[in-house]
Structure to design on (204 residues):
């Protein structure tokens, strides 16, 4: 499979058209939302700054942390305006422009929740994440088995949950900017709940 096929999407129209209509829903079940919030809490401390990439109207961040700021990037202005945890946001398509409008070493934690499967230039995005994270900053990429299939890349659509974990881990490793990368299985697959996985990279 060549690179073009690897990142191919069924729907090749402009992503901004697909995300034009606000979707004020969560894309994982209530249990996964609760588990993700608890996991974020384990990565955070008072005073931390957070960048929520590919965000929407909910960031899953615990409310009992005193953040210095919570910035976000997303595709729908209405969704971002409805997110009560954000101090600021930008509307940006990371598949067109991967350069983030933030300074070097500005954030303690970057999150990408249930959206990494839509990136067509992931390594470039992960390089930018490393740039804006402080030394020993963390990037947490979480995902389930749900997706918008027409907008997910072919490599994601045709592979298993285990493959997804390995793929995201590879994105981190290909940048050479993260010293430690680990996979955490937060909710195992079962008939009652959505599975949930996280891949965490820590900057050099």
């Amino acid at each position: 499979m060549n690179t073009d096929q690897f990142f191919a999407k069924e729907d090749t129209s402009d992503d901004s058209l697909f995300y034009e209509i606000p979707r004020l829903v969560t894309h994982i079940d209530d249990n996964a939302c609760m588990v993700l919030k608890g996991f974020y809490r384990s990565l955070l401390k008072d005073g931390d700054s957070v960048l929520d990439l590919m965000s929407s109207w909910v960031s899953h961040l615990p409310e009992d942390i005193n953040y210095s700021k919570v910035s976000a990037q997303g595709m729908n202005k209405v969704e971002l305006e409805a997110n009560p945890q954000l101090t600021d946001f930008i509307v940006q398509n990371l598949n067109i422009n991967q350069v983030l409008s933030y300074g070097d070493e500005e954030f303690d934690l970057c999150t990408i929740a249930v959206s990494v499967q839509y990136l067509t230039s992931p390594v470039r995005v992960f390089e930018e994440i490393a740039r804006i994270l402080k030394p020993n900053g963390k990037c947490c990429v979480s995902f389930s088995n749900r997706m918008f299939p027409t907008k997910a890349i072919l490599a994601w659509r045709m592979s298993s949950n285990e493959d997804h974990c390995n793929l995201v881990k590879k994105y981190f490793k290909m940048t050479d900017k993260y010293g430690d990368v680990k996979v955490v299985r937060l909710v195992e697959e079962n008939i009652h709940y959505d599975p949930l996985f996280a891949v965490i990279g820590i900057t050099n």
Notes: The chain is about 30% helix and 25% strand. Strands lie at 49-55, 69-74, 88-91, 107-113, 133-143, 178-187, 196-203. The chain has a mean pLDDT of 90. The first strand starts at residue 49 and ends at 55.
